[in-house]
Amino acid sequence: MDILLDLSSRIAARKAVALHESRRKELLLLRNPSRLFLRMLFERFTEEAMKAIMLAEEDTRRFGHVYVATDHILVGLLLGPENIAAKVLESIGINAKDARVEAIKIVGQRGFNEPIEVEKMETRAINIPFGPRAKHILELSYEEARKLGHDYIGCGHLLLGMLSDERCLAAQSLANCGANASNMRTEVIRMMAENNNETVLERSCEPNVVDDAQIDEEVREREKKINLKIQERYKLMCESPDFEKAGSLLGEIKALRMEIYHLQAKKEKQIMWSRMWSC
User: Residue 117 above 70 pLDDT?
Assistant: First the structure.
């Protein structure tokens, strides 16, 4: 009897060690994805997928979390306008609020604190990194795109990547909402084959400090021009009012301001790419 108990305890100990080792290897895999590989992933993202990631970052900041997790990416997909993932999820009655509620429930069951919404948080907060599981989902989305023969990564691929990892928080939240992973996968693939209107971004070189400096200089030049035109318009209206010329100057001022807006948007996009490549 003692021999059997000893043998049983040894078997149980070996199983525990094997389970611990498998989990350790999984965590190592999740924590150390290739930086160059992640860079290649983001270069293949569609415009809609990039918007979903940006919305995921906003959701992360709103709850005061320290990294982007899979549930934030799910919320980003649901909040994104007219993307395949959102259409599939909404067709089965799942919205961003439902997904967030289920994620909070799951996190609470695991013994962690529930997300705390941060009021009046600056939108341009410090860059937020991706969590290990979120990085893994990005890699899985690439695998899904490759299997389908696509050379881009869209919102549909991101959702398929989540469905491929049943242990991620996003997949568990969807399951708790009553979603069937197999049915969703079939519907996503069907919609991508029939009507995929996502915009594939052009490949771009890595942004650097020089790019930002050039944009800042161009913005300053346009601001100087705006100030000069404002002074010219003021002087014109004070001395000898010429409403036609004043209207023309006002149009030029508006055009310059629009150019500044586009330059600043370009800089924000470069900052976003730079942050993603360094994650």
Answer: no
Domain residue extents for the chain: 35-194, 209-277
Q: Which CATH number fits domain 35-194: 3.40.462.10, 3.40.50.620, 3.40.50.300, 1.10.1780.10?
A: 1.10.1780.10
**pLDDT: is 194 or 274 the higher one?**
194
Instruction: Flag whether pLDDT at 24 surpasses 60.
Output: no
Taking CA atoms, 19 is separated from 53, 55, 212, in Å, by: 33, 36, 49
Q: What is the spatial distance between Cα 75 and Cα 72, in angstroms, rounded to a whole number?
A: 5
Q: Please state, in angstroms and rounded to a whole number, the distance separating the CA atoms of residues 60 and 54.
A: 10
| Cα–Cα distance for residue pair 92/94, rounded to 1 Å | 6
More confident residue, 70 or 3: 70
The tokens describing 139, both together, are 């890699």
Instruction: With beta carbons less than 8 A apart as the criterion, state whether 49 and 197 touch.
Output: no
This prediction has a pTM of: 0.60
CA 143 to chain centre: 18
What is the residue-wise DSSP string for 203-263? P-PPP-HHHHHHHHHHHHHHHHHHHHHHHHHHHHHHHS--HHHHHHHHHHHHHHHHHHHHH
pLDDT at 206: 46
125 pLDDT above the threshold of 70:
no
